[in-house]
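pipeline stage [seq->struct] | target=Tetraspanin | organism=Drosophila gunungcola | residues=268
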Amino acid sequence: MGLNGCCSCVKYLMVLINILFWLIGLTIVITSVWMLTDPTFMLSMTQSYNHYHIALYVFLAIGILITLGAFFGCCGVCRESQFLLVSFFCVILIVMVAQIAAGAWAFHNKDKLDDIVRAAVKSSVQEEYGQSTMSSRTVTFDTLQKNLKCCGADGPGDWATSRFNNVDRTNIVEIAVSSMNVFYNIPESCCKDNLKDNECELSRRLKFGGPLNHAIYQQGCVDKLIEIIYENWVTIFAVTAAVILLELLSLTFALSLCCAVRNQHYKA
């Protein structure tokens, strides 16, 4: 004998919520796999390779858990199974706690995250860009600079002490002294769009400490990334809050249905 009345409405709502979870989970899984397999994905510039891949594997695990939870939820509702409903409750509870913990940690360590991102992007500019063993990093940073309309980590001046200009970075003091009154090159991706013939080529050669050419982007990529995050902060917060609210609602529905199924079994 199936559930009826209010419980029947809750069942339909649970199915709808689990379809949404299924879509969210699949989106996370597909995005994670794409980011893992695409070496030119721009977010890889914000941290070291090891940290980047660890974060993606965690992201992938959350996506798999959400998809699995949605499967348990749908099957539990359709079969009116206490075991599957409890499994759904446990999986979604784990995901929700992980989300809240990650959000709290990120908020508490936002200054450290800023430093980590800045250091990682600067390292890519000065240590990795243009190196034959780091071709994917070069392509990624070119894409980043073109799309965000920025140049270097903190600005075009970062390229003066970069390996891209064949600078030996084993002695930072010597770099600072020897870089005075010399010229250095910046990547073509620092040039603004729609420039005239050879204008980009001529603008790419800069004097250390001299004025910057208006044909190249002036803002650093780290500041640009942070600016984009702050501009979309309300949207990010609203989406996160909506997902957590949906998870709380699904947990409440799952417990209600579980109790209803148990009471029905007792009556039977």
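stage status: PASS
auto-comment: Residues 175-181 have pLDDT under 50 and may be disordered. Strands lie at 183-185, 205-207.
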